[in-house]
Design goal:
The chain is an alpha/beta fold and 327 residues long. The chain has a domain of 219 residues: Rossmann fold (3-Layer(aba) Sandwich). The protein is built from 11 helices and 12 strands. The chain has a 7-stranded parallel sheet with strand order 3-2-1-4-5-6-10, with helices on both faces. A 3-stranded mixed sheet has the order 7-9-11. Helix 1 links the parallel strand 1 and strand 2. Helix 1 crosses helix 6. It is globular, with a radius of gyration of 19 Å.
């Protein structure tokens, strides 16, 4: 049985690849021609070239596989070419899932996001059944993933045995880009965080999140979705934990939301009109921070056996990896 993984060169995808190899699974890794392969160097896996926008390359890569983990996504909080986000995340998802159906794959795990799950007004953690408020779809990435998840449900109705997983915020080593959360850690280490916003996230060790994908493959019910998360923490609590790990003083000033929003507007205008480079303060990120993204992972714990290793340990591993790579 061979498993194809898309997005395996990334933070979460490479963790999934390592966990599958640890289980003795045979894997193939889909990578674009210009992909950064550092995260998969040395892995005993076949790397095949392909692009989510090219169905023939997907068919070639998937031939001989029984299982697909579709992890890849274009994650950007600002981009000059917004069409690219939709081409990859929406049409690319349709391309690969329709190809999987055409080839008769036995199992598909689709990586969605908790950004597709509704939030509560009182910061109470929500579960997979919480209705989505369109107002919380605050950027093109979230809109594209919301549309892509609908495609996954559509494909299940057409007969594809697909399980949907909704990771919260994975943390740990090999966050090479880094992700927005990894950038928070890196900025903290570099003394670039003088204040904090009153917001919150659900964190999970990236290895636990990877294991959750495999458990969804093995135990998940087709057509269901599972939140892969662990601990809900305010940003202030996260920064205080980083202070304990590093000895670096956490910021004590709480920034008013309107100040962050104004900074985001200014930085976005600068990027769009002058620099053509990602803004220092992405407005999309500020809009996301308006909401406490707290979630309840009890369904995945109960039905899949999702591990719940301490997120403090994962934060420590992330810190040490960034310190090693960014000296």
């Amino acid at each position: 049985m061979t498993t194809l993984i898309t997005g395996a060169t990334g933070f979460l995808g490479s963790a999934i690849a390592r966990e599958l190899l640890h289980d003795g699974r045979k894997i193939k890794l889909l990578a674009r021609g210009n992909a950064d392969l550092r995260n998969i160097e040395g892995l005993e896996a076949e790397v095949v070239k392909g692009d989510l926008r090219d169905r023939e390359s997907l068919k070639s890569a998937m031939t001989g596989c029984s299982t697909l983990y579709h992890v890849a996504a274009y994650y950007s909080l600002w981009d000059q070419d917004k069409k690219l986000i939709y081409d990859i995340n929406v049409q690319g998802t349709r391309n690969i899932l329709e190809t999987a159906l055409e080839l008769g794959l036995e199992r598909v795990v689709y990586t969605s996001t908790v950004g597709c799950i509704g939030l509560s007004e009182d910061r109470t953690p929500t579960n997979e059944d919480q209705p989505m408020d369109p107002a919380t779809l605050s950027n093109d990435y979230k809109v594209s993933k919301f549309r892509a998840e609908k495609i996954a449900f559509e494909m299940h109705n057409r007969g594809l045995p697909v399980v949907i997983v909704n990771p919260s915020t994975p943390i740990g080593p090999r966050d090479i880009k880094p992700t927005p959360t990894g950038k928070i850690i890196l900025d903290f280490l570099n003394g670039k965080m003088p204040a904090y916003l009153d917001t919150g996230l659900n964190l999970i060790d990236v290895v636990d999140c990877a294991r959750g994908h495999i458990l969804a493959d093995e135990k998940g019910r087709a057509g269901e979705r599972y939140i892969l998360g662990n601990k809900n923490m305010s940003l202030k609590e996260i920064l205080q934990t980083l202070e304990k790990i590093t000895g670096i003083k956490a910021p004590t000033i709480k920034m008013p939301y309107w100040v962050a929003y104004a900074a985001g507007l200014a930085c976005e205008a600068m990027s769009n009109l002058i620099t053509q480079k990602p803004p220092a303060v992405p407005l999309a990120g500020v809009k996301m921070a308006k909401y406490f993204m707290y979630f309840d992972s009890s369904k995945a714990i109960r039905e899949l056996g999702l591990p719940q290793n301490p997120v403090e340990d994962a934060l420590s591993q992330s810190v040490h990896w960034f310190q090693e790579k960014h000296r």
